[in-house]
Amino acid sequence: MPEMVICKSCGFIMEKGKLRDTCPACGVPAKMFLPHDERISPQRNKLLKLDMHPILVHFPQAFTTTIFFLSLAGAALHGPLSSILDATVLTLGVLLPFTIALSFASGLFDGKIRFRKVKTPLLQKKMALGAIFFLLGCAIFACVKMLPITAPAHFLLIAGLSAPALGCAAGLGRIGTSLLNARFPG
Fold this sequence. Notes:
This protein is mostly helical. The protein has helices at 42-48, 52-56, 58-76, 80-115, 121-146, 152-179, and strands at 4-7, 13-15, 33-36. It is elongated and about 60 Å long.
């Protein structure tokens, strides 16, 4: 296993052999790096470095944000552009609960690898918030599948559901960011 170093300034970890004159993350001089011993097994570290959960959570976040703003635009605009917005909101609304479920599953896997259990206080908060996000995603799915959303009122209904879903996505992101460097040793 290659020798690792950590930046005293920002906490960036990298292979010692790849370190040049400055920290690639924050730009401080290389003398700010210290030797770093990884506290988790190579197998667990390899799984965490796949970054499955951090990558997958971007889909429902992006879909929810796009649904929200396009729904507001659809409520304000009429004509041919409205049908394009309708098709886009419909597509994203259908995919949203599936991307949330996939993110939830990858979060459970990540939590199990990172902490060896998923019943930690912050993970339980994430699971509760994730469940609410999923239910809102299912409500958006139901609305886009059952209602013709070309009417301004239907666009506003979708925007009204996607606003709290966007809040859930933001809350999940904030908790996730706080856990990014946390790992149970061993």
